[in-house]
Amino acid sequence: MRKKIVAGNWKMNTLPAEGVELAKGVVAGRGEVCSCVNFIVCPPFTHLAMVAEALKGSDVALGAQDCATEAKGAYTGEIAASMIAALGCKYVILGHSERRQYYGETSATLNKKMAQAYANGLIPIYCVGENLDEREAGKHFDVVKAQIEEVVYNLTEEQYKNLVIAYEPVWAIGTGKTASAEQAQEIHAYIRQVLTAKFGAAAQETAILYGGSCKPSNAAEIFAKEDVDGGLIGGAALKAEDFLAIGKGFSK
Asked: Matching HAMAP family, A to Z (predicted)?
């Protein structure tokens, strides 16, 4: 059985005290959702220590939104994978579309970040996905395949066992266009096919999350699809009630 995962990417939102309250809200309501669902919260770097404290004693995991390409040194403003691991993070989001789009992250960058994550015992949530122009040009399969082949194909079999993939239809975020559950299943199945070509049967165990405007109203429909194993949640993760309701999408 593949893991069912609902991960909250808080992005650059909340102040530390607000983040603590949000985390406490998730912990307080966690018991209302099937224990088969794995919850992860990914606050800003500034919140990690405080949120880790708020999560103590619960099974809600902590993740970071990024890590540096280097282990340590004269890299002002960067946060090493070892630092976030030391604060209790189990996961790290890598290759998010916003990092690719706004900060020029390439496959070369991400290969270095993946290596740092694994060297420090972190599980990467590796993001792939196409933008609107690429989708409309029918290039979405090619784009996603390249993003996987250029990074994930470089992993060892052992590393690959500790990997989560998140598919983000960038074209469906803030554009007024919506990805249907069928479109989500189509691309998730394709991603699993690309992973199978390299890693064989192990690809059947890889959790592939949907990251495009998933909310309480559509979670059950999307999660019902065979190759959708959960969600990487943005805006809806900023309210504990909504975040938990998305998790309940698995039990409907």
From this structure: TIM_B (MF_00147_B)
* Residue 11 annotated as lining a ligand binding site: yes
Cβ proximity of 118 and 151 under 8 Å:
no
Question: Can you give the pTM of this predicted structure?
Answer: 0.97
CA distances 122 to 77, 81, 94, 142, 210, Å, are 21, 8, 11, 28, 21
What domains sit in the chain, N to C, each tagged with a CATH number? 4-250 (3.20.20.70)
Ranges of residues in the chain with a pLDDT under 50 are none
Distance CA 126, CA 65 (A): 11
Under a CB-based contact definition with an 8 Å cutoff, are residues 223 and 230 in contact?
yes
Query: 4: annotated binding-site residue?
Result: no
Tell me, what DSSP letter sits at residue 140?
Answer: H
**Amino acid 172: pLDDT:** 80
Q: Give the C-alpha separation, 156 to 135, whole Å.
A: 31
How confident is the model at residue 175, as a pLDDT?
65
Consult the annotation and say whether 174 binds a ligand: yes
Active-site position among 96, 105, 140, 188: 96
Cα 81 to Cα 93: distance, rounded to the nearest angstrom: 11
Question: What residue type is 198 in one-letter code?
Answer: K
Q: Which amino acid is at 219?
A: A
CB atoms within 10 A of CB 220: 16
DSSP per-residue codes, 28-58: HHGGGS-TTEEEEEE--GGGHHHHHHHHTTS
Q: Would you call 237 helix, strand, or coil by DSSP?
A: helix
Q: Which residues contact 76 (CB under 8 A, 6 or more apart)?
A: none
Q: Which two tokens stand for residue 20?
A: 């603590």
188 is catalytic: no
Q: At 183, phi and psi to the nearest 5? A: -65, -40
